[in-house]
């Protein structure tokens, strides 16, 4: 497609169809045909839960499907340990520590109250076993031992937790310790906890299996994972429970069916059984009425506009990351995509430079918007190439 010399954006509307490899442009038109009307009753009202707050998120797209008091700041209890585990996993993957490193258990860790891994003071325990003690047994002693190993003290580790919360853009979270034991300035929200769970799943998938383990034995004491859904629903494979008198019974649960992974966060129920039942309601609702589609793969070429004055005449444009979208089940074929591409593109161009926008629409509503970026770098052409392109631009301007 020839691009003319004008500083405004050229709107290119592409009709698309969904396939295994993602959305594929099949035609160009000035306006897309109107999608089939989507009946307002295609998704019923979400269930009302016996809880203080809750969120249902699609883990791939990040779309919030259901929410109630999602940003209310509440004591997270042992849901805190998701961030503790995340930092441990990050440190392992960054090779700052090793899963086989032996950690000496301090008296401070041993004396920590609440749920325990039953560590012995002065003993040496591997990072890998301590991580299982945190995730499966919800051990406060294991959490403190890991925090001291990584940061030197609980306070210093809490600072790392808050730095990571800032990187995740958590707006309603503040940590004072790695355990979740009560503190007036220790809080989080259902939405923020869903985001932490999403990062655990996506950032360190090699470590995720531990969240589905049902039992862990240490010091001859076999303890079950407190997440009841691991026994009841084969699609559930994580993540973490929490309970204190102030927090009530809480659960962050994740499940996967086909290509759809959901995260349910339920806070402030009145019993262990209630948090499992209410979480199951959210997950069942989500899988029944929604599905996730991968529309584009990272690096997929979506368009090849003309580039002026470069060593090449065409520039490959696409998206930097995989594009997932959560849609009402059965309505994926009603999606259409629109590319807004910068009209005049002059060399040089750096790989990753944004030169337009990809918009995904359903029934005229923009569901998602992503930067359209250069998939390659193109340098300036030689003197005569630049001169010839200038002449072509001048001539084409008469026909614009």
Kindly describe this structure:
With 400 residues, the protein is an alpha+beta fold. 26% of the residues lie in helices and 30% in strands. The protein is built from 9 helices and 18 strands. It has helices at 81-93, 107-111, 127-135, 140-151, 154-167, 190-203, 229-232, 272-289, 383-397; strands at 9-19, 22-29, 53-58, 64-68, 102-104, 124-126, 215-218, 221-224, 236-244, 248-257, 260-269, 290-296, 301-303, 317-318, 323-328, 335-342, 354-362, 365-374. The strands form 5 sheets. The chain has a 7-stranded antiparallel β-sheet with strand order 2-1-16-17-18-14-13, with no helix packed on it. Strands 4-3-11-10-9 form a 5-stranded antiparallel β-sheet, with helices on both faces. Helix 1 runs antiparallel to helix 3 (127-135), helix 1 (81-93) crosses helix 4 (140-151) and helix 3 crosses helix 4 (140-151). It starts with 8 loop residues before the first strand and ends with a helix. Mean pLDDT is 88; it is low at 1-41.
